[in-house]
Specification:
alpha/beta, six-stranded parallel sheet
Length: 431
């Protein structure tokens, strides 16, 4: 099939590459000339494992190409995927500005029957609205279009693996033709396929992410109780996770969730509920716990170290999760902001991500090596569970530190081993 993917962020680029890998002819469309130029050379402008290798492969074969020519791209492709951002407004609702603009672009260039597939995470009823926007902008009143909801379930850091081996595919459409085309497109995928209405498909995405966020916040609240009762949260999580009704995933206590999906999607679902006169109070608590969890970690630091004024604190990890350079809603930043408020001297390290310039101007210094960041530090704080941090020479780091305080905000290191090395080790929920 010939496929157009509009938006070349990590969702759009990954989606396009998955279709190219399946043998389809893909065009990636974006308004950003620099992004298109970079992708056309087989180089992603964001960090995602395996992306550059697959880009090089399919750009070289011509299986995928990138362009800024919206008129040509829309007119020449009849299966169009919308993969643009839906950021949060101040009230938490989803901003559909980019989706609306894409719909208008499609309408203005609607030259024959098209199937438009929305992969962007959007509120319920958006598929209906997209169709209205397209037809309102169309100059060809006789042409028609079908809009399908086909939400993505990609995880940053493993997006290609998730795209090539999904655990389910959700297709929301009331058009037999569109459903048949999407079934054919995904016929090589060995996973359950859910055929439902567009509204249901849209809600499945929001409900899924909100439920996972709820599991994380629940475990973080239980972890606080574990600290008071001198109980190991990991033992609690393992005992819970072996129950198939609970499941072992997303039971990791720490300093909370971040990224481009969970915070935004939980708030958007809450906003959608408010529009219909409902209050999803359980999700309000999910956000409140998540917002307070970084502060809980710094409070423990203050309890151990006393005043942080002029103390050197090394923060390891600023990406919101390992294997990505995405800083959106990273829990490291509330930690850093609180440390700066306490007048600490903050050093940071991350294997991939870079501190924004405005943060560096506030007195934060970034180091190329974790060992350098930790030299003469009064404490080390782990905010991202990069596997590289597990393999550090922690004995050497302890020797270089001024005092051996180690605060593990991701519970990624062995408390027993760290204590054997002489660290004063503090995790989340270890008592």
């Amino acid at each position: 099939m010939k496929i157009l993917v509009i938006g070349t962020g990590y969702v759009g680029t990954t989606t396009g590459l998955v279709f190219a890998e399946l043998g389809h002819q893909v065009t990636g469309l974006d308004t950003d000339e620099k992004k298109v130029e970079m992708l056309s050379k087989g180089k992603a402008y964001f960090h995602e494992p395996g992306i550059d290798e697959m880009l090089n492969k399919h750009v070289a074969t011509g299986q995928i190409c990138f362009t800024t020519d919206k008129k040509k791209a829309i007119r020449e492709n009849d299966l169009i995927f919308i993969c643009v951002g839906t950021p949060s407004r101040e009230d938490g609702s989803a901003d559909l500005t980019y989706v609306r603009q894409v719909a208008r672009d499609i309408g203005e260039n609607l030259n024959r029957y098209k199937i438009v597939v929305n992969k962007s995470t959007v509120p319920v009823k958006t598929s209906e609205q997209v169709k209205k926007w397209i037809l309102k902008s169309s100059r060809n009143a006789g042409e028609t279009v079908e809009v399908v909801s086909n939400p993505e379930f990609l995880r940053e850091g493993s997006a290609l693996e998730d795209g090539l081996h999904p655990d389910r595919i959700v297709i929301g459409s009331e058009s037999a033709t569109a459903i048949a085309v999407l079934k054919e497109l995904y016929k090589e995928m060995d996973c359950p396929m859910i055929i439902t209405t567009p509204r249901t498909a849209e809600l499945i995405k929001y409900a899924s992410n909100s439920f996972l966020a709820m599991k994380i916040s629940y475990m973080n609240e239980i972890a606080r109780l574990c600290d008071e009762l001198q109980i190991n949260i990991k033992d609690v999580a393992r005992g819970m996770g072996l129950d198939p009704r609970v499941g072992e995933h997303f039971l990791q206590a720490g300093i909370g969730f971040g990224g481009s999906c969970f915070p935004k999607d939980v708030k958007a679902l809450m906003a959608s509920a408010r529009e219909h006169g409902l209050n999803l109070s359980i999700l309000e608590k999910v956000i409140a716990i998540n917002d307070s969890q970084p502060q809980y970690l710094v409070d423990r630091m203050v309890n151990e170290l006393g005043s942080l004024d002029q103390k050197v604190i090394a923060v390891l990890g600023i990406a919101f999760k390992p294997h990505t350079d995405d800083l959106r809603e990273s829990r490291a930043f509330p930690v850093i902001e609180r440390l700066l408020k306490e007048k600490a001297l903050v050093r940071v390290h991350d294997p991939v991500a870079s501190m924004p310039e405005d943060k560096l101007h506030q007195g934060v210094r970034q180091y190329k090596h974790a060992e350098e960041a930790a030299r003469d530090a009064d404490a080390v704080v782990i905010c991202t569970d990069w596997p590289q941090y597990r393999d550090l020479d922690w004995r050497l780091i302890k020797q270089r530190m001024k005092s051996p305080f180690l605060f593990d905000g991701r519970n990624m290191l062995s408390p027993g081993l760290m204590k054997e090395m002489g660290f004063t080790y503090r995790g989340i929920g270890y008592g």
